[in-house]
Amino acid sequence: MVDLDGALAWAGDVLGAPVLASRELTGGLTSTMLALRDASGAESVLRLMTNEPWRTYGAELTTREHHTQNVLAGTAVPAPTSLGLDADGVAAEVGAHLMSRLPGEPLTAVDDGVLRAMAEMLATIHAVRPAEPFRTFQSWAWEAKWVVPGWTRHPESWRHAFALLGGPAPAYEPTFLHRDFGHRNLLWQGGMITGVVDWVETSTGPAWLDAGHAATNLAVCVGTEAADAFVECWAATSGTAAEPYWLVMDAVGFLPPPGRPPMFSHPAELERLDEWLDRLVRTRLG
User: Fold this and answer.
1) Based on C-alpha coordinates, what's the Rg of the chain?
2) What is the pTM of this model?
């Protein structure tokens, strides 16, 4: 149960002006995201951690996003500004984070210029040096997921991927990560990135894991050619060779835990994930 009236009243107190209108933004997987307009005419965004399993960890996630946005203030990364935090859900009964609303909208089409801009923005993010490192990244490809999916056309590729992840991870240079970087968490205006949003998973880890997550999202939503093009673009931008271990880890992380349905409901998305994992195994692992 969420106390929406309580959440909006709290937001109005933080903003110093009552909230006159709210509407739900699309695309939120973990949360209900509300665009607010207050009596001063200003707009803001309210995150409410309504969806499980993230709701259970709402205090941790909203606190991390609040801290990250404070760290990013004054950097070249166009992140929202944190305006208020109710991590324990005193007002809304779920973790809540109030932040500024940035201009721009998500893109519906991807081309080479978009991929280059994404790679350049990722480099900008990775250049951030927090005074205190964020937590070490968490793998989303935990061992319980290492089950060949029934919908695959490439079972041997999945087995090969699981075997790779069962071995030692390569060494890496600890890097500031968005950890959920991808085209769906970018805002655009006039052909430029005007916002990088959704900072609840910020971590320290290998740079190629961020790049891998962007690539998997592109593979699932757009196609494997776009994903492969982004990998090459990031390799050129970062001056580093593609690291298959981290690319495979991210792709496997999109499998559901045992007993749960896939996060993608459309068969075409599962097919593209299957094609991407197979492509990684065949072309990146040899």
Assistant:
1) 19
2) 0.95
